[in-house]
């Protein structure tokens, strides 16, 4: 090859260049419609789909448009939207999908599986359930002029709020995996603005029930090492209308299998460091002993909430925490069916170890900081 | 030119042998072998990787045991077949070996094209790309084993620089609890999955062709073993990562678990890392295919005195023709199954047979025949 004549090389380079340019399949941003947020709703016996499209003109200038369409199936969203758009609709940057509650009630398994098969759909896609109609929520985000408004809202609440860190891959993990049920953030409209209403619990592929944003903190505590999130709870040994807010700084939950069969029993050890955010005046914490008493009061309170939350999941026959998966990891020859047959009588023993690390920078009464 | 210097021009150093071994073992299957081994042994399949790796180390000992009994300049599978089975049968076996190596190279080539097609460019016309690829292959293989080993070096480097560190970025997404409880499968299940895993190692038999071209045949053993060990580590890490990343049901729905895992990563300026990985993977695939093609051409030269360049052109034309005949992944799968079957018989039955035959002949004190 070393002795090949220059003209042979030139031809080689030309061929390579031609071939390489033929390989490029370029799509320029202002020549396409980039679908970034989408929604699925039921409309009678038909499916209504919508996408928010960001039209990019110049740097920093965006106009966002809502395109919607109706069809007999949920699968032809993109081709139907193509027919409505003067530029090609590309969904490689699809980052957020909302399901209307009635649509989610019918099951979203086939949509999850189709998205999973499609290499264009990112593993970081966010999914959510809308209280009511998803396309209405989508329309409410148009004012923000941000095609990813809903995604940013959710991801922000995962980082700093009560939502556990989840994305499409985690949902698939739970959906396909044994001994788990997936859950999605639940979105609602509050005075015309989009807000996080809580968490929607699923059984198999279908929506089962939702929990409020306060309870979502309990779920976050159980499924991950929560870095942030706050929980409103009644003040121990006080009148019931008095409430305080704890903010979690760090947490860790350990599960221990007490008994495998016939009735599985699991011990949950929840450790958390909290900051007392908002305390009623009546709460006096003057000495170390007061602080210890407050801590144990909060522990009791939290233990009650966690037990109640698990009882609710068991009653709904959903397993968002993944007790099944946990028992599987400790049991040889674990089978899903017998476990969930025994699930209603699942015993849990909750132990809470709560430490108050700080209460704001100002002095509150004589509160002692550690 | 002295004879030593002349030899120097065609031989490869021991460290290149490491690259050659690694590249010959790790091919496109690295992107999706997890799904194949999980069928039988579930999430205990990591044992299969270790067992299969151990098997390859043993085979490597056998191969070195075989070739070291022949004159170094003549210790190729071509000469050994002719010596053990006679000229006529030996020629048939040599032709079969070449067909097998060619099929392996073609499968890698076609699978890679399919992967690009499914992941990045579903609507692209593949002729321009494959034409360029074939020209590249001609250029690489025509340079002889030294050129191929050079590309193997870059292939190894691309693996170590890209696939390994990026897969480390997956650690936050892993669920170690997936691996428990360990040893939840029977011995038979683990053995069945080891068989699947052993098929992923097919390719290192290229050593049987390249051995005479090693600079230091005796000291290269440890480098060959190091190459196999490195591939075992790579397989093991990507297997464990996939097992911890996907839940049991999910991995069965995934065609290429490795690519799928990498797609969750994002780095600044690149949202879809798997596109980058798949493009860089081209070097690795190029090295793997050229190695197979080189083995075919070199054996053809030794066995039938064919001109390597002509054999190469015929092979590449065959690639171009066959590539159109195979429509999609469903067409590739049965061929791969066949290839794996034949490969396993070749590795685990034929090589031990060669070893025994070589050993018997030696006891009869017949000195090796010389073929050129």
Write a concise keyword list for the protein shown above.
heterodimer; A: 370 residues; alpha/beta; GMP Synthetase, Chain A, domain 3; nine-stranded mixed sheet; four-stranded mixed sheet; 13 strands; 33% helix; disordered C terminus; B: 372 residues; mainly alpha; Amino acid/polyamine transporter I; 15 helices; globular
Question: Could you give a short description of this structure?
Answer:
Chain A: It is found in: Membrane. The complex is a heterodimer of chains A (370) and B (372). Chain A contains eleven helices and 13 strands.
Structure notes:
The complex is a heterodimer of chains A (370) and B (372). Chain A has 370 residues and is an alpha/beta fold. Chain A folds into 2 domains: 29-221, no CATH class; 225-370, GMP Synthetase, Chain A, domain 3 (2-Layer Sandwich), CATH 3.30.300. Chain A has 11 helices and 13 strands. In chain A, strands 1, 2, 3, 4, 5, 6, 7, 8 and 9 form a 9-stranded mixed β-sheet that branches. In chain A, strands 10-11-12-13 form a 4-stranded mixed β-sheet, with helices on both faces. In chain A, strand 7 (183-190) and strand 8 form a beta hairpin. The longest helix of chain A is centred in the C-terminal third of the chain and has 29 residues, at 288-316. Residues 365-370 of chain A have low confidence and may be disordered. By secondary structure, chain B is an all-alpha fold. Chain B has a single domain (15-359), classed as Amino acid/polyamine transporter I, CATH 1.20.1740. The two termini of chain B are 21 Å apart. The A-B interface holds A 1, 12, 15-16, 18-20, 22-23, 25, 92, 113, 116-117, 119, 122-124, 169, 172-178, 180, 325-326, 329-333 and B 118-121, 123-125, 128-129, 131-132, 135, 139, 142-143, 173, 175, 177-178, 180-181, 184, 245-250, 252-253, 260, 263-264, 266, 271-272, 274.
